[in-house]
């Protein structure tokens, strides 16, 4: 009879060293010594190797796709509205500046993961800084950020389904449908598997952005010189309040908020140090895409630009753009669902 691997294969639990430890080279040590004298230990080792192989299939190219899936989604559709508040100059500076900061911050998060390999999720970094208190502070922020992001995707799913179907169905029904789709797409067990859906997501968001930019450009009014005659401005909107300006800036920050997911993704990389290639690739793509869609749509539409920007493309083109964007609405949201589930699983092993 084959031994029961679940009963005999016992994994040690670990305690993370903190940055305040006297030994600067402190490493993660087992919290308790666990021995296994059972003859099935060889079987256990083989099982561990098999599982490790399954969860170590993520290369830097697929990581780039997963990061694009995580990052370039709903945030990009709110950028033109931020430009309308901050003005063309303020919008470009904010988009590029925040993008550079986000890229550098993500690099540093990955560097911490490399130095402390047993940091499995973003909350573990809080433990390194402030011990158990820091763990809970960062963990709560991490989970709330993901939950609110999933909720945002669900809301956008409601708007998209209502726009595409032009139906009188209660929005609660669309909300339930969106939640169910987000749940089903979160089923793939590894991020390498999710990357396959990520290719569809990438094609979806880039196509939707392209449709929005082209449609708003074609529909924009022109002056005698053929230039867009919208009421766009280099400077911020007149009499803009501090709170309104901060909301606009926070929308741009939200669009770049992918750093908390990096430790979770790096757990599945077969060459973790290659994460820098994915980070730099994503950083360049995000800065270019966000700056272009923000400036061009604002240039074509002016102060009346809507959020999400797909609504500014006109009734027919908005329906088409939302239809094309449905995969990104649900695939990106389901990735955040997977991150939450993966974190909960790690805490209960």
Task: Name its key features.
two-stranded antiparallel ribbon; 349 residues; Amino acid transporter transmembrane domain-containing protein; L-amino acid transmembrane transporter activity; disordered N terminus
On the 0-100 scale, what is the average pLDDT?
85
Class of secondary structure makeup: mainly alpha
List the secondary-structure elements in sequence, H or E: HEEHHHHHHHHHH
Give me the count of strands.
2
Low-pLDDT parts are: 1-8, 10-14, 22-37
Oligomeric state, counting identical vs distinct chains: single chain
In spatial order, strands of the major sheet run 1-2
Overall shape: it is globular
Percentage of residues in strands: under 5%
Rg over alpha carbons: 23 Å
How would you characterize this protein structure?
With 349 residues, the protein is mainly α. Helix content is 68%, strand content 1%. It has helices at residues 5-8, 41-54, 60-71, 74-115, 122-165, 171-184, 191-219, 242-255, 262-266, 275-301, 315-347, and strands at residues 14-15, 29-30. Strands 1-2 form a two-stranded antiparallel ribbon. Helix 3 crosses helix 11 and helix 7 (191-219) runs parallel beside helix 10. It starts with a helix and ends with a helix. Mean pLDDT is 85; it is low at 1-8, 10-14 and 22-37. GO terms for molecular function: L-amino acid transmembrane transporter activity. The chain crosses the membrane at residues 63-80, 86-107, 135-163, 169-187, 199-220, 240-259, 279-300, 320-344. It is a multi-pass membrane protein.
């Amino acid at each position: 009879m084959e031994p029961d691997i679940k009963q005999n294969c016992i994994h040690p639990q670990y305690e993370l060293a903190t940055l305040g430890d006297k030994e600067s080279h402190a490493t993660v040590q087992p919290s308790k010594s666990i021995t296994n004298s059972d003859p099935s230990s060889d079987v256990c080792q083989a099982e561990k190797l098999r599982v490790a192989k399954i969860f170590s299939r993520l290369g830097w190219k697929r990581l780039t796709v997963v990061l694009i899936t995580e990052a370039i989604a709903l945030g990009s559709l709110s950028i033109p509205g931020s430009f309308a508040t901050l003005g063309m100059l303020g919008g470009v500076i904010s988009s590029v500046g925040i993008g550079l900061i986000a890229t550098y911050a993500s690099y540093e998060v990955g560097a911490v993961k490399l130095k402390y390999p047993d940091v499995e999720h973003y909350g573990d970094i809080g433990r390194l800084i402030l011990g158990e208190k820091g763990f809970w502070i960062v963990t709560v922020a991490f989970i709330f950020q993901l939950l609110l992001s999933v909720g945002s995707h669900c809301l956008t799913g409601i708007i998209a389904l209502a726009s595409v179907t032009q139906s009188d169905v209660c929005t609660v029904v669309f909300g339930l449908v969106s939640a169910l789709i987000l749940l089903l797409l979160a089923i793939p067990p590894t991020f390498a598997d999710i990357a396959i859906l990520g290719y569809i997501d990438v094609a979806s968001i880039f196509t939707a952005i392209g449709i929005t930019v082209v449609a708003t450009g074609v529909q924009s009014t022109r002056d005698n010189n053929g230039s867009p005659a919208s009421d766009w401005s280099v400077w911020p909107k007149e009499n803009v309040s501090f709170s309104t300006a901060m909301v606009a800036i926070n929308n741009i920050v939200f669009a770049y908020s992918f750093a908390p997911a990096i430790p979770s993704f790096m757990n599945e990389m077969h060459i973790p140090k290659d994460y820098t290639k994915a980070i730099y690739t994503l950083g360049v793509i995000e800065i270019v895409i966000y700056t272009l869609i923000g400036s061009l749509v604002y240039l074509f539409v002016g102060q009346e630009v809507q959020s999400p920007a797909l609504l500014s493309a006109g009734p027919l083109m908005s329906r088409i753009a939302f239809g094309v964007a449905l995969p990104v609405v649900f695939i990106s949201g389901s990735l955040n669902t997977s991150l939450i589930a993966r974190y909960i699983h790690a805490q209960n092993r």
